[in-house]
Design goal:
Elements lengths: L2 H24 L8 H7 L2 H4 L1 H16 L7 H26 L6 H21 L7 H27 L26 H13 L18 H6 L16 H6 L19 H12 L16 H8 L25 E5 L7 E5 L7 H6 L7 E5 L7 H7 L7 E3 L21 E3 L7 H8 L6 E4 L10 H6 L4 E4 L3 E2 L2 E2 L5 E3 L4 E2 L3 E6 L6 E5 L17 E3 L3 E8 L9 E7 L6 E4 L31 E3 L4 E11 L3 E9 L9 E7 L6 E7 L10 E9 L6 E9 L17 E8 L1
Helix pairs in contact: 1-5, 1-6, 2-5, 4-5, 4-7, 5-6, 6-7, 8-11, 8-12, 11-12
């Protein structure tokens, strides 16, 4: 086909497309677009660059090359081609705009600008008989329209700072500064999640759907479709609807291709929203075993700890362990926060090791640690410390006198330490503190009222998990690091409050205040046992229940390997995760769990010589709020050559009901018929392939989390 014929066909297409564009633009609010056309809309950013470059080239040609023109047919073909492409780009842009993912004002401006570019491109075809001076004016006007309105498109895609000079990275105002329980759930976990995964599209630089998420006020305000925290007519809150949609769904957030929420983050958002989306509730106001409190305390905000930060700050990995987190406050910061967990695992050497970075530590949480004066002597060296949590330690107020030499220390928490008005008055003399948190068995605001009146420089906060005048007991502590019974295992249970009675059960029932045995001495276990404990005291609210499962393990396989690999997000430490005797507890993101969802879990264990097995036990984690459901069945097969397997037994387990609210470690067992011995045993653990209709993730697979196999 020659250029003249091609131009004619292109011209007919432009005469059809531009009136269609005008019609669609005018009635865009009322019109609906099919899924296929919405998909075609995604081609808009892919094809728009060529007509922009061609349009600029045409302007240069019309302004500067009037005396050196192209052949008439070639010139018309170029102008028609430009008009056709401009019309197609505008049409695809209209389809894309129906996806409701952009700021409305900027979108409308860009939409009408795109239509203007298409119409002017159409007009350029017919400039042949117009005076040259007018052609140049129209061309320059076209250039201005082209540059201005394509820039609006850049703002939609890249934000308001699309052409700004890059500036140093700054942290979001709501980003978490410290890690202890005096923070709100929002400050500790929700704000950092939103800052990393959501604010890039719903923040000050780029506003999709008129929604901004960088502050509580803006979150409450909501967006184009109203509040994201409240459901309408018994529906789930909008934020939960969007984050639980399949990644390929147009309305899934974050959009496919962006950094996605982890399972831990999905769970946190889910539990926080369902608990009321409270921006002011502190972690300390929740029960210690509340799953939201546990997840919020364990959540680590994105930080620069891997040596790639812009300040060339040291790598912090060497200081971290399962019971100690050391992180920079935020990306690019040089200030460090330190958080100790699980007092039974605390070692002085861990604190001494921090002396290498003592000039950068600004927040230290040692709540519940068995620290002594020797530990305090090290802490006093942290001269940049701003916040210190010593709740429920064994120290006295006299021991803390040297803390007053840390002039930067403004916030001190000493709940559980015996204080009165006189001792606290003396302690606060010449102290640098601006806020101190206290609470003892007999603390009351009335007792310290005079001190508060006389001391305006220090804010005294009294209370820790208070419920009116009735105080809830803290939970007992099961003092046994190991969960593995070889021959026998002795277990101790402690509670630090005098007059407290600890009751326990080992038969699977929950402890009560009347019939359950009272703990008086060490408990000796010789077989699989679920120990449940609870603290009681007259006039107090009983504690939350604490339980731990102890497993009898007599046999250790010689080899183990996967038939199907776990989800890449939760690979544990490979197949040996199942036989390393390290339980993952209830933190499913600590690297000690294997997780399966889209495929069925299968693995094989092997022995050098054939040997009989009687029973296999699996330690699993169940949390239906996090889409983690019980194992549905365990199939065990035997083989002597590792190729041909014979089914030995299958154990089936019930799933959960709508009324169940479960977050616990559970044991799943399968017996093996006596009389046969094999060198290889293959295990198949089936997960729920379709979550029930009452669950927010209905129709999608449920997770199973497994961390240990015990053989007898």
């Amino acid at each position: 086909m020659d250029s003249k014929k091609l131009s004619q066909w292109g011209e007919w297409c432009v005469w059809f497309l531009n009136p269609l564009l005008l019609l669609l633009a005018i009635y865009s609010e009322a019109s609906k677009t099919s899924t296929i056309l919405l998909w075609f809309g995604k081609l808009h950013p892919l094809v728009l660059h060529f007509p922009i470059v061609l349009g600029i080239a045409i302007v240069i040609y019309l302004v500067f090359f009037q005396n050196n023109k192209l052949a008439e047919n070639t010139e018309k073909l170029v102008l028609v081609g430009n008009a056709f492409m401009a019309s197609m780009v505008a049409l695809l842009g209209l389809f894309l705009s129906k996806q409701d993912a952009y700021d409305t004002d900027t979108l409308n401006l860009h939409k009408w600008g795109g239509l203007s570019i298409a119409l002017i491109s159409w007009l350029l075809i017919y400039l042949k008989n117009i005076p040259t001076s007018i052609q140049k004016i129209i061309a320059l006007g076209y250039l201005l329209v082209l540059l201005f309105f394509t820039h609006q498109g850049a703002l939609l895609t890249h934000g308001e700072n699309a052409l700004s000079i890059p500036t140093p990275e700054v942290k979001i105002a709501e980003e978490v500064k410290t890690v202890d329980s005096s923070l709100t759930v929002y400050e500790k976990a929700i704000a950092p999640i939103l800052a990393q995964k959501c604010v890039s599209c719903h923040g000050p630089a780029k506003v999709k759907g008129q929604l901004q998420l960088q502050s509580p006020e803006l979150i409450i305000k909501g967006g184009k479709n109203g509040s994201i925290l409240n459901g309408i007519q018994n529906e789930e809150a909008q934020i939960l609807q969007r984050i639980h949609l399949p990644n390929t769904d147009e309305k899934h957030m974050p959009p496919d291709g962006k950094l996605q929420l982890t399972l831990e983050e999905l769970t946190l958002l889910n539990k926080w929203v369902k608990a009321g989306g409270n921006f002011t509730k502190k972690i300390s106001e929740l029960a210690k075993t509340d799953s939201l409190a546990i997840l919020a305390m364990a959540y680590k905000a994105p930080s620069k700890g891997s040596g790639d930060n812009k300040n060339n700050a040291p790598d912090l990995k060497q200081y971290n362990s399962s019971y100690l987190t050391v992180n920079y406050l935020f990306n690019g910061s040089e200030e460090i926060e330190v958080n100790f967990f699980q007092g039974s695992f605390y070692k002085l050497e861990q604190l001494k090791n921090l002396e290498k970075i003592k000039d950068k530590i600004v927040s230290l949480n040692m709540q519940g640690m068995p620290i002594t004066k020797e530990d305090l002597a090290i802490i006093v060296q942290f001269t940049k410390l701003k916040k210190l949590n010593l709740n429920y330690t064994t120290l006295t107020l006299n021991d803390l006198a040297h803390l007053k030499t840390i002039t930067s220390l403004k916030n001190l928490s000493i709940c559980g330490m015996e204080v009165n008005q006189n001792t606290l008055t003396k302690f606060l003399e010449k102290a640098p503190f601006t806020e101190i948190n206290i609470w003892t068995n007999h603390s009351s605001e009335k007792e310290f009222q005079q001190l508060m009146t006389n001391n305006k420089k220090v804010k005294i906060i009294i209370g820790d998990n208070l419920d009116a005048e009735i105080i809830k007991l803290t939970s007992p502590i099961i003092e046994q690091d190991s969960s593995i019974i070889v021959n026998s295992l002795d277990v101790m249970v402690k509670h630090f409050l005098k007059g407290t009675v600890v009751r326990y059960t080992t038969d699977g029932s929950d402890p009560d205040s009347l019939r359950s045995p009272i703990y008086t001495k060490k408990l000796r276990f010789t077989k699989n046992t679920i120990l449940k404990t609870k603290a009681f005291k007259p006039g107090w609210i009983s504690s939350d229940m604490v339980q731990k499962t102890f497993y009898k393990s007599e046999i250790h396989p010689d080899t183990i390997y996967f038939v199907t690999n776990p989800d890449k997000k939760y690979p544990g430490t490979g197949a040996k995760t199942l036989i390393d005797y390290e339980l993952g507890e209830q933190n499913f993101s600590n690297g000690k769990w294997l997780a399966y969802k889209d495929i069925t879990m299968k693995f094989v264990i092997g022995f050098k010589q054939a040997r009989p097995l009687q029973e296999a036990h699996f330690n699993a984690f169940v949390d239906n709020g996090s889409y983690i459901f019980p194992i549905l069945s365990i199939i065990i097969e035997g083989s002597n050559d590792g190729k041909e397997f014979k089914k030995l037994n299958e154990a089936k387990f019930p799933s959960l009901k709508e009324t169940d609210v479960v977050r616990e470690n559970k044991s799943f067992s399968c017996s093996i018929p006596a009389g046969a011995a094999y060198k290889y045993y293959r295990f198949t653990l089936l997960n729920l392939k379709n979550l029930p209709t009452w669950h927010p993730g209905k129709g999608t697979p449920g997770w199973i989390f497994v961390d240990e196999l015990f053989l007898n």
